[in-house]
C-alpha cells in the first residue's frame, strides 16, 4: 500500500477491468441466449471514465449517451457514431442535426425535438431519416406505482394515454423521408423488479405493432436493472437471467412470426459498473468525542456515495500492524470536508483503525466519478488493474487543472 500511495496519493480508486468484462459477458449471455438479436448500450452517465467506456466498446457495447458532452466523448474514444444511442431530455437543434448526419440512433422525447427533426428532413429531402421515440405510459401493477422516489407518474417521454404519442407519429409520418424505427421505454423504478420490465416490454411491443410496425427496427427497454449486489445490502435482487427471462419471453412471443425480428436494446449502467471500482483512503486521525469514535480519512462521502445515503458500503481495513486481543469498538468513518454530514460509514463494529491504516470501500463504480463535485479538494487518481498490470487512467488533479485558467479569471 505504501508504494501505491507513493505513486497515486493517499486516496485513489482502483478499477477491476476483469470484473468489468465479466459483468458485460454475463449480461450479454443472459439475454442473447434467449433472444439472439440483442445489443447492450452502456449508459455513459453512470460512469464515463474514457478507459472504461473504451473497454466496453471493445467488448461490443454501444454508447448510450444523454448529452452532447457524452456524445463527443464517444466520438473521442473512437466509437462508430452509428453505434451511439442519443437519448436525454435536452438536445439542441445542432445536437440532433449532428447525430442525424452521423446516422446515430436518436430517440426524441418531446415535440420541440420533433420540430428539429422535421426541419432537418425538409432541408435534406433526398435523405432517409430514421428516428426513435421515447414513450411514456402507465407501468403501475395492480394500481401500485413502481416509480422512483414514490412518484405516481414518470416525467420523461411522449405520453401515450392522452394522445400525444399518436399525434407525434402522424406529424412525423407526414414527411415521407422520416421513418420511425424504434421505441424507447426507460423508466426509473425504486424496486427494479423483473416483473416491471415484463410490463414495459409488453407495452412497448403492443404500441410498436399498433403504430410503427412498417418501420420497426428496435425495442429499447432502457436500463435500471440491478447488478450483483453485496451480501451486506441485504437486498434480494433479480439475477441477470431472471431479468432476461420475462423480457425475452415477451419479445419472442410478440415477434415469433417475423422474418426479421426487431433488435432488443438494454441500457445497463449500475449493473455494469457498480462493483468494478473500489476506493482506498488513508486514515489521517482518530478522535473520541463524548465516547464516540470518529475515524478521519483522506476521502469524502462524495467519493463513494454522492447521494449521501445512510447505507454502509462493504468495507475493510488494511492495517499497518497486526491487531490481537482487540476490544470491539463502534466507530464512524468521516471525510475531509467541513460538512457535518460527510460520513463515509456509520456505526461500524470492530477493531478501531489506527493512523496510517487504509480503509477500502467497495461497490463505488456507479455515479461517483461523474457525480463528484469540485469541492474543497482535487479529484483523486483512478488506477486500472488489468491482469495484474496497473495503469493510471485518470491522474490526480493539479491546482491548475482544478482552477483552469481558460475558465477562471484571476
Automatic annotation (TrEMBL):
Cofactor(s) this protein cannot do without: pyridoxal 5'-phosphate
List the top taxonomic levels of the source. Answer: Bacteria, Bacillati, Bacillota, Bacilli, Bacillales
This chain's source organism reads: Neobacillus notoginsengisoli
Q: Which residues form the active site?
A: 338 (proton donor)
What's in the keyword line of the UniProt record?
A: Pyridoxal phosphate
| Residue ranges constituting the Orn/DAP/Arg decarboxylase 2 N-terminal domain according to the UniProt record | 21-274
GO BP annotations, alphabetical order: lysine biosynthetic process via diaminopimelate
What is the protein name stated in its UniProt record? Diaminopimelate decarboxylase
Query: Where on the tree of life does the source sit, at the highest rank?
Result: Bacteria
| Pfam families reported in the protein's UniProt record | Orn_Arg_deC_N (PF02784)
GO molecular function: any one? diaminopimelate decarboxylase activity
**N6-(pyridoxal phosphate)lysine sites (modified residues):** 45
Amino acid at each position: 500500500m505504501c508504494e501505491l500511495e507513493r505513486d497515486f496519493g493517499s486516496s485513489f480508486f482502483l478499477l477491476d477491468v476483469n470484473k468489468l468484462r465479466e459483468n458485460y459477458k454475463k449480461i450479454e449471455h443472459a439475454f442473447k441466449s434467449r433472444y439472439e438479436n440483442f445489443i447492450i448500450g452502456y449508459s455513459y452517465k453512470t460512469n464515463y471514465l474514457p478507459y472504461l467506456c473504451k473497454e466496453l466498446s471493445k467488448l461490443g457495447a454501444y454508447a448510450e449517451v444523454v448529452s452532447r458532452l457524452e456524445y463527443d466523448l464517444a466520438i473521442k474514444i473512437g466509437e462508430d457514431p452509428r453505434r451511439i444511442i442519443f437519448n436525454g431530455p435536452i438536445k439542441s437543434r445542432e445536437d440532433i442535426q449532428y447525430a442525424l448526419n452521423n446516422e446515430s440512433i436518436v430517440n426524441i422525447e418531446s415535440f420541440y425535438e420533433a420540430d428539429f427533426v422535421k426541419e432537418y428532413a425538409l432541408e435534406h429531402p433526398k435523405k432517409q431519416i430514421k428516428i426513435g421515440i421515447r414513450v411514456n405510459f402507465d407501468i403501475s401493477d395492480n394500481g401500485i406505482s413502481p416509480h422512483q422516489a414514490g412518484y405516481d407518474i414518470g416525467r420523461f417521454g411522449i405520453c401515450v394515454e392522452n394522445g400525444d404519442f399518436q399525434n407525434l407519429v402522424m406529424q412525423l409520418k407526414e414527411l415521407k423521408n422520416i421513418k420511425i424505427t424504434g421505441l424507447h421505454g426507460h423508466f426509473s423504478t425504486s424496486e427494479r423488479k423483473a416483473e416491471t420490465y415484463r410490463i414495459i416490454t409488453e407495452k412497448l411491443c403492443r404500441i410498436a405493432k399498433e403504430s410503427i410496425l412498417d418501420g420497426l427496427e428496435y425495442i429499447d427497454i432502457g436500463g435500471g436493472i440491478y447488478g450483483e449486489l453485496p451480501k451486506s445490502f441485504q437486498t434480494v435482487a433479480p439475477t441477470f437471467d431472471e431479468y432476461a427471462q420475462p423480457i425475452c419471453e415477451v419479445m419472442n412471443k410478440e415477434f415469433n412470426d417475423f422474418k426479421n425480428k426487431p433488435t432488443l436494446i438494454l441500457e445497463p449502467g449500475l449493473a455494469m459498473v457498480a462493483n468494478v471500482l473500489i476506493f482506498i483512503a488513508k486514515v489521517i486521525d482518530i478522535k473520541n468525542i463524548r465516547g464516540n469514535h470518529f475515524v478521519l480519512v483522506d476521502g469524502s462521502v462524495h467519493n463513494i456515495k454522492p447521494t449521501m445515503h445512510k447505507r454502509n458500503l462493504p468495507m475493510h481495513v488494511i492495517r499497518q500492524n497486526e491487531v490481537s486481543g482487540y476490544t470491539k469498538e463502534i466507530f464512524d468513518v468521516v471525510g475531509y470536508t467541513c460538512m457535518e454530514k460527510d460520513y463515509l460509514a456509520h456505526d461500524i463494529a470492530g477493531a478501531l483503525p489506527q493512523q496510517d491504516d487504509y480503509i477500502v470501500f467497495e461497490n463505488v463504480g456507479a455515479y461517483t466519478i461523474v457525480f463528484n463535485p469540485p469541492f474543497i479538494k482535487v479529484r483523486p487518481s483512478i488506477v486500472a488493474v488489468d491482469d495484474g498490470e496497473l495503469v493510471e487512467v485518470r491522474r490526480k488533479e493539479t491546482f491548475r487543472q482544478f482552477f483552469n485558467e481558460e475558465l477562471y479569471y484571476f
